[in-house]
User: Fold this.
Amino acid sequence: MHETGVPWDDPSGDHLREWMGVDTDVFYDRERVALVPMGFCYPGKKKGGDAPPRPECAPLWHQPLIDAMPSLQHIVLTGQYAQAYYLGARRKKTLTDTVRAFDEYMPRYLVLPHPSWRSRIWMKKNPWFEKTVLPKLRRACTVLNAT
Assistant:
């Protein structure tokens, strides 16, 4: 994203689109998918990865954006920051436990680990994700491919 100005235009985006079962045309069609980051600017690096999103962005911008999308069906929560913000006390003790409880948050929220390279390691330790969560995620996203 930082080089191209296009969100999810990297291997993480490829991974997310694969998980969702959508191609790039669908994913970047603003009539079907809204890409709303937790922060609206790059927070920089911290301890070998990206720093957390700036805390003032989501409270300031998310609700007005959601209100502007009356046909919104699902909100995909990728990673711990999105899950913490939207699920609050409903999230589980760990990201793994929160993702394992995927059904508890549906249909409004679809909870996923962040699709970075680290998720490949996480998926090897949690094979249930591919067997149980991804089919449900893809079924929820089938409406995107229908139009």
Observations:
- The CA atoms of residues 106 and 114 lie 18 Å apart.
- The beta strands are 45-46, 49-50, 75-78, 109-112.
